[in-house]
Structure formats: C-alpha cells, structure tokens
Amino acid sequence: MRIRKLFKFENAHIVRNCSSERCKHSIHGHSYQIELILEATRLDHGQMVYDFGLLKSSIKDIIDSFDHAICFWNKDDPEYVAACKKFSARWISLPVSPSAEQFSRVIFFWAQEILRQTQMQNGEADVSVYSVIAHETATGYAQCFADDVANEQMGKLVLEDFEFSEQVRAEWTDSDLYAKLIRGESFTNPTVTMQVQTDA
C-alpha cells in the first residue's frame, strides 16, 4: 500500500549547462510542490502505512530547508558560490545540479536515509520511499524512484557532500539533525499506548 504527503516551498537556482538560455544564465525561482510517496506491505497498530503526523518532524524539516533558499551546484564558479553564501542567509550547496530531477533524487535520498535510521514504535514494518515527484511548475515535474537514486550516472549522492547555511540549520527543530544523519544516529518516534488491542 502507498500513501502520499505533499510539501511546498519557494526556491531559487541557476541550472547550469541546460538548453534554456534563461535558465542557465539567470537566477530564477519556482514554487515547488513535492509529493513524497511511501509504501509498506503491512500496516502499523493504527492501521496506517506511516502516520502522516510523523512526517512533520525530521523529514519535513529537511525538505523545508529549500524554502526561500538559493541552491547551487558545488562545482559552479567559486565567485558565484561565494556570492550566494554572502548575500543569502538561506542556501544549500549540492553535489549535483539544482534541477527538478536532482531535487526529486535528493529528497528521496534524504527521506529514505531518515526512515532507515528511525526507530519505529508503533508496529511499522518495511516502510520505504516508493517515489518522489518534484513539481517545478504547473505543467512540469520530475519523478524519482529508488533505481534513480542509486544510479551514479545521474550523480553520486553522499550525505557528507551536502552543506546547509547556518540559518537553515538553526530553523530545524533539532539544529544537529543533519550531523546526526551523517553519524548514523537513531531518530526515535514517540511511543504509543494501545487503546484497542489487535492481533498484529
């Protein structure tokens, strides 16, 4: 079974090496909508794939990092990178281009890593990310699956290769969120008291 959670943010970028003259030379922004689709082969004690409320913590924080931020490819011109860091308090340095395709891969990668390191407390089993859809405009989106995240031809994704500005980190519920992710520390879901006894 699959569930879908929608996230929204405003973000600016330049997409270097693309075909469009406007997109590859000028900073511009989009109102993104991100569809995070999770799947599992069984339901938890609340008979859910994964409680939507649990997606309002670490996964929401990491996706919200993009909001009102500028994203840049860390291989871009050093002067441009320095200007982004100097004139914007909110920025994310990516090891890949800030395209819709890469946003879908990056968000899939982060969400899957958070789920993998989460200590479940309510009978959740084999919950995983099925897909991420990154709507860049009303007419265009990119969709990512697990094979795309693992495909190094599309760019290797390693947790240590991302960098977040101080203001982005300060606005997380836990400012040490990403460092914990890199260290492989557990994220623990809240404990649940059973109100109705089940056979599960």
Automatic annotation (TrEMBL):
Keywords tagged on the record: Lyase, Metal-binding, Zinc
Catalysis performed (reactions): 7,8-dihydroneopterin 3'-triphosphate + H2O = 6-carboxy-5,6,7,8-tetrahydropterin + triphosphate + acetaldehyde + 2 H(+)
Enzyme Commission identifier(s): 4.1.2.50
Pfam families reported in the protein's UniProt record: PTPS
Cofactor: Zn(2+)
Pathway(s): Purine metabolism; 7-cyano-7-deazaguanine biosynthesis
Record bears the keyword Transport: no
Gene3D superfamilies: 6-pyruvoyl tetrahydropterin synthase/QueD (3.30.479.10)
Entry's Gene Ontology molecular function annotations: 6-carboxytetrahydropterin synthase activity; metal ion binding
Similarity comment: family membership: Belongs to the PTPS family. QueD subfamily.
Protein's UniProt name: 6-carboxy-5,6,7,8-tetrahydropterin synthase
Organism for this UniProt entry: Psychrobacter piscatorii
Taxonomic path: Bacteria, Pseudomonadati, Pseudomonadota, Gammaproteobacteria, Moraxellales
